Amino acid sequence: MPIGITAHSPAVVIARKDFPAHDLNEFVAVLRQQGGAVRQAHGGIGASSHMACLLFTAEIGAKPTLVAYRGSGPALNDLVGGHVDFLCEQSVSVAESALAGSVKAYAVSAAERLATLPNVPTAREAGINYEMSVWAGLFAPKGVSPEVIAKLADALDKALDEPDVRERLAQLGGTIPAKAERNPAAFDRFVRSEIARWAPILAANRAEK
């Protein structure tokens, strides 16, 4: 049973630091031209890094070679080491690497640039319709009473208004949902819309590894 959404974390398209493309348009051109010669890392089938790149490569019409890892951590480590070419992963996981210059960041999948990565453009700035977030939320087991759900949702709402919570999430590249999005009914609608959005993408790419 849905309680409420806690945060959004847009994806960042990052590549090894010596990847030859200078901006997102050049990067997309390389992916389209070289196809399977470009190695895309991800943290396993269904992981955020897998799904974020499925949406991105579907939008630009590219078919890179997918390299699966047991988690996004090992995938990011190999990207930093130059063993694979690119990765799409939530900002809270890769912002520090991008700021340190150990990877090259080409775009974020948000409607606006992130405060933590102000020099990284949105995909839309390059004319690419790539907008999504890796979100987190709270759920309760089926059968929990509406009164308990309401109490938990209220506690979550208050926690998300705490200045320290908001500041820390912003530092990590995350965003807090508007108040109207935090209640159980709104969260339930959001989850259903996400299922409808992602189900056909996953079905079309079920054989991708």
What is the overall shape? globular
**How much of the sequence is in beta strands?**
15-25%
The termini sit apart by 31 Å
Total number of strands: 6
| Fraction of residues in H or I helices | 40-55%
Task: Note down, in words, how this protein is organized.
With 209 residues, the protein is of the alpha+beta class. The chain has helices spanning 24-34, 48-60, 72-80, 91-100, 146-160, 163-172, 184-204; strands at 2-16, 39-42, 65-68, 86-90, 103-108, 133-139. The strands form two sheets. Strands 1, 4, 5 and 6 form a four-stranded antiparallel β-sheet that branches. The chain starts with a strand and ends in a 5-residue tail after the last helix. The mean pLDDT is 92.
Key features of this structure:
single chain, 209 residues, alpha+beta, D-Maltodextrin-Binding Protein, domain 2, 2 domains, 4-stranded antiparallel beta sheet, two-stranded parallel sheet, 7 helices, globular
